[in-house]
Amino acid sequence: MEFRDRRVLVTGGTRGIGRAAVESFLAAGATVAVNGRTAESVAAALKELAAGERVIAAPGDTATAAGCKAVVDAAVAGLGGLDVLVNNAGSGGGGPVGDLDEALWDKVVDTNLKGTFFCTKYALPALRDGGGAIVNIASVRAVMGAAGASIYCASKGGVVSMTKAMAIEFAPEIRVNALLPGAIDTDMLQSLAIRMGDDVETGYGMMSAHTPLKRVARAQEMADVILYLASPRATYITGAALLADGGMAAGSANLDQKAS
Questions:
Q1: Which residues are catalytic?
Q2: Looking at the chain, which terminus has fewer C-beta neighbours within 10 angstroms, N or C?
Q3: Has residue 148 been placed in a domain?
């Protein structure tokens, strides 16, 4: 298996894309540190994963620099080092610019942008020891605007720009890439779908109407891309912003659609 004896930290790894990535890394032979905001959520995930000593807990809030350090320290100590960092923890939220306040700005930007930066900062020494890989989870909204999503778009656009800068700075020892998902079947997107269309199926139909592949993706499909970017199959890829959006950014999207 491609990740045998590799040590991986996935932030926001208890659900959604992060959980799918954790499961895929484990299936590929890795030992994985799972981050979630609370010790309870991480403990529940580890119980469900039932992977024994190949999975460890690294709880903590990655929206603060101190929280990021605690998470990375726990992962490095528990894993005995670090080879792959997946910065997946994220936050949504939005509305018309005139209705937004500083608290929402701080919540979204601190989680999506500050957390990615400081988790990377604190993981850097361990990653350099083994020549590691970083995968940052951005969004198609990093390259496409959406009404009511100004803060979210700004935070994810920042992740992409930061990825490119870090790829240059950390080369050649560490590769840094970003994944830009489109609409993915997660708890957060299901809630949005219900607000848009009264039920998940109707909402998903509205979201994917202007997407060439005409559907919402499974979280596992994003995990497959994450593992590729972190794997020996992608050793000449760094500084990339890889769209996995069903063709959404290639076509004419509904600009009134809320952020995915």
A1: 152
A2: N
A3: yes
CA 95/CA 124 separation, integer angstroms: 36
Please check the confidence at residue 1 and state whether its pLDDT lies above 70: no
Q: Does some domain include residue 114?
A: yes
202 token code pair: 């109707």
Range of the domain at 234: 7-184+217-247
User: Residue 22's beta-bridge partner residues?
Assistant: none
Entry pTM = 0.92
Task: Please list, in sequence order, all residues whose beta carbon lies within 8 angstroms of the beta carbon of residue 169, skipping any fewer than 6 positions away.
Answer: none
Do the Cβ atoms of 132 and 174 come closer than 8 Å?
yes
The answer to whether residue 208 is domain-embedded is: no
Nearest partner of 88 among 175, 14, 158, 182, judged by Cα: 14
Number of domains in the chain: 1
Token readout for 70 is: 């605690």
CA 10-13-19 angle, 5° bins = 115
CATH of the domain at 235: 3.40.50.720
Secondary structure (DSSP) of 116-155: HHHHHHHHHHHHHHHT-EEEEE--GGGTS--TT-HHHHHH
Residue 163 lies in a domain: yes
CA angle 22, 139, 242 (to 5 degrees): 80
